[in-house]
Amino acid sequence: xxxxxxxxxxxxxxxxxxxxxxxxxxxxxxxxxxxxxxxxxxxxxxxxxxxxxxxxxxxxxxxxxxxxxxxxxxxxxxxxxxxxxxxxxxxxxxxxxxxxxxxxxxxxxxxxxxxxxxxxxxxxxxxxxxxxxxxxxxxxxxxxxxxxxxxxxxxxxxxxxxxxxxxxxxxxxxxxxxxxxxxxxxxxxxxxxxxxxxxxxxxxxxxxxxxxxxxxxxxxxxxxxxxxxxxxxxxxxxxxxxxxxxxxxxxxxxxxxxxx
Length: 260
Known about the structure:
The protein is mainly beta. It has one helix at 70-73; strands at residues 7-12, 18-24, 29-37, 43-51, 54-62, 91-96, 100-105, 110-111, 121-122, 146-154, 160-167, 173-179, 185-191, 199-205, 211-216, 220-225, 231-237, 247-250, 256-259.
């Protein structure tokens, strides 16, 4: 910005469409590293500013549209964020310092038809048309061989997780996967215990968006996944022959209670 590095703030709607973007200049260079939500009054941005060669802490309060000074905010100073929402899914709603609230139609803007079925659509000629596939769907996956899904659980993001069993080329294995709200398969994993054929029994979400999956081979165990499908740990329980873990309950502190 004028030959200097500046912090960059971007405001989006609930679907990720960009409503506005602004730069925050401070000192010779500036960067924004974190935000604190002030609700309808905007945000506080924190970061670093370089002044005369020294890196110093930066804190700035901006309004819901990224204005960092009253001069920039202008007509928006007393306007709350909700006041500029025209309830039209095919417009971007902002507050301009000179003219006040302004809604501009945008072609191909991501939108929710709100018809009770369509999950996501894109604006066309000022309307948000329903889609042929959405919240209701049916999917079939082969996973490279035979597969059976035995349990499912709803996730906080509106998607789903499942557990079951598969027959990949190597051996009978537990099958675990994550599905997006529209039915897209996000990731899957197969796991086979070295002691024998492995079956998935149950799955539970964790507080960070990951999963806990219960499996059984000769005995039983739990496998922990991150939100993007990385395996964090696997614990097998070999307390006595025929031991089986049937289900588990997630606790608020991240732990769990096991049903034996």
